[in-house]
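User: I'm preparing a small set of examples for a lab meeting where we compare how different chains pack in three dimensions. I only have the primary sequence for this one, and I'd like the structure in C-alpha cell form so I can line it up with the others. Please keep the answer compact; I'll paste it straight into my notes.
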Amino acid sequence: MIQRTLLALAFVCFAVLAFSVVNAGEYFRDPHSILWHFAAPLALALLCLAFVALPATGRLALGSVLVTVGLIEGFFALLNSSQQPQVETYVDPGYYQERNDLGWAPRPGITTRASKCVDGVPIYDVEYAIDDRGRRITPVASTQGRTRFVLFFGCSCTFGEGLAQTETLPFFVSKGAPRIMPYNYGFHGYGPQHLLARLESGSLRGEVEEREGDLVYLFIDSHVNRAIGSLVVYNGWAHSAPNYGIDATGEPARRGTLTTGRPLTALAYSFLGSSQVLRHFRVEVPPVITDGHVEFTARILARSAALFHEQFGSGRFVVVIFPGSTLAGRLGSALERLGVESLDYSQLFDYRQPEYHLPEDWHPTAKANQVMAERLDADLADGADSSR
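Assistant: Understood. Below is the C-alpha cell output for the 388-residue chain.
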C-alpha cells in the first residue's frame, strides 16, 4: 500500500514536471518559480522512487537523513529569522522595468524618492532622477564649454545608491573638469556583462551629443561574481542578467540570460538557494574566485573596449579598480595582457573607514566619490595609460 502511494506520488510529480517543461517559457524564469515547478517535483519524485527501490534498512537510513536535514534546516530558518536585521526600503513601484537586453533597468523619465532604514535607523533618504535615456541625471552648472563626454558604467556604486545627485562619482568628476559632460549609465546590481550588452545594442553612440570622449568602468570585486553568475548573485537578483560564454575565437558571446543560457546551473542554484544552512553561512558557489574567472571578466571588458573604439573612435576606455579591491593585481594583469587600460585605486583610501561607506550599507559616501574623482580627473587629464 505504501509503495503504491509512493509510486502514485512520483507519477504526480513527474506529471507536474512534464507540464512545467512544456510551459518552460512561463515557469522557467526565476529561482522561486524554478524551485517549485522543476527542482522540488524532481527531488520529491526521485525520493519516492528511492524509498520504493531500497530495502528496509536503506529506507530507514534515508528517512533518518531526511528528518535530520529537515530539523537542521528548520533550526537555521529560525536562527536566520531572529538574526536578520529589519530593513525597510522604498522606491517608486514603477522605478524598475524589465529589459530584454539588460534584464532590468530604470524606467526612463522617472523621479523617485529612495529611502532605507535598518532596525528603525534611517540610512538615507534621497531622490533619484532618471533622464529619457535611462541614465541618472548628473547636474552641471553649465553645459557651455563641455565638449568631451565621459560615459560612466558600473553598478550602484557608479549610480550613487543612497546619495544625492550632487554626491555621485560622475558629478564630482565633472565638477573638477569643466570640459567634461558626464553620463551616468551605472545601475543597481549591474556587472560587466551589462556594459557589453549596452555596447552590443549599437544604440549608445546616438545617445551622446559630444563627438569625442572617454568611457570609465568602475570595477568592484563582486563584479566577477556577477559576470559568472554565482549562486548568491543568481538567487539574489540577477536571474535575468545577460549571460556570456567564450566562443571558439576566444571572444565573449551572448548566450541568453543567467537562467535561459545555462538551465542546469539555474536548476541547481535554485535548489541550493533555498537552503537556510547555506544562507546562514553565506556559502558561495563557486567558493573561490579563480584566475579563470578573472580572465573571463577581463575578456568581457576587453570586448567592450573594442566595441567602444569601433563606435566612438579614439577615446580612452578605462577600468577604474575600486578602493579595497583584493583582485586588483590579477585583474590589472589580465587587462594589460588584453590591451585594456586600468587605473588601480585599490590603495587610494581605506574603504573600511566609516567616512568612506554608508552605515549598514557599504555603498560609497560622497567623500569617497570626491576623493576618487580628484584622482580620476588628474588621470584623465594627464593621459595615464598604465595601472597605478
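A couple of notes for your slides: The chain has a mean pLDDT of 96. Residues 70 and 128 are 44 Å apart (CA to CA).

User: Perfect, thanks.
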